[in-house]
Amino acid sequence: MKEIRAVIQPHRLAKIRSSLRNIKGFPGMTVSKVDGCGHHLAKPAQGIREELTDYSPKVMIIMVVSDDLLEGILQTIVEIGHTGQVGDGIVWVTPVERFIRLSEQINVVDC
After folding, report:
1. What pTM value is reported for the model?
2. Considering only CA atoms, which of 54, 37, 53 is closest in space to residue 90?
3. pLDDT for residue 2
4. Contact 1, 99 (CB under 8 A)
5. Measuring CA to CA, which residue among 71, 66, 68 is closest to residue 91?
């Protein structure tokens, strides 16, 4: 099992969600509104006020997926999330040691 986290432009979410739902076995996702700033600054900050407000709205997608779904889901997020503009976002994957779905009767999956 792997955890996928993606920080994307908000206007890309609907299309990513729609495409992910077409993947057989898609487990669902959690979506949060976040603010962020990247390593690239369009212009240098002039003072502390600019430094504290130099954030843009983003959306973070979090999901735990089986290893066999990983590449297809990553490909979907990257292809649809990419616009070629500064601030498109970032995607990363981390291993998951245990997974418990609370809606099922204490069904612990050791990964």
Report:
1. 0.81
2. 37
3. 97
4. yes
5. 71
